[in-house]
Amino acid sequence: TIPRKFFVDILVFSIIIFFVVISTSLALLCSIDVLKANNPGLIQTIEAYPILEALLTFIHPTLLLIITNLLPPIMTGLGLFEGCLTWSQCSMRQMDRYLWFLLINVLFVTTITGKFYDTMYLITTSPP
Fold it and tell me: pTM of this prediction?
């Protein structure tokens, strides 16, 4: 079961990194400014119906939530593939992997990267 565990650990790490790419791409594609730039008729529609802009801002978080909710069953399946003998052992592996996923994506990617870019922007735009 050591080769399976190694393979599953590599796969989980790949899923975590792939999710960073997906979430960043969705943030770029689903932002209001990009949607307005790619759809010129959307600007007049938003001006006519202001609530549409509020609804469009919910696209990105909803898509991320859907993708994030797919991960626990996938990680449970990986635990079964790995060779966990009991359901409780499989559930503990799934929760452990999901915890690492959340720590890496929420703490490191969102918080640290966001603060890093804010600080770099502040440094580059402020006069010496």
Answer: 0.69
HSE-up (13 A, CA, CB side) for residue 75: 25
Q: Any idea which residue has 């509020």 for tokens?
A: 54
Q: Which residue has the tokens 């966001």?
A: 114
Transcribe the chain into DSSP letters.
Answer: -HHHHHHHHHHHHHHHHHHHHHHHHHHHHSSHHHHHHH-HHHHHHHHH-THHHHHHTTHHHHHHHHHHHHHHHHHHHHHHHHT--SHHHHHHHHHHHHHHHHIIIIIIIIIIHHHHHHHHHHHHHS--
Please check whether residue 6 is in contact with residue 81, taking contact to mean a CB–CB distance below 8 angstroms. no
How much is the pLDDT for 96? 93
User: Is 102 a residue whose pLDDT tops 70?
Assistant: yes
105, 19 contact by CB (below 8 A): yes
Q: Count CB-CB contacts under 10 A for residue 8.
A: 20
CA angle, residues 91, 4, 2, in degrees to nearest 5? 100
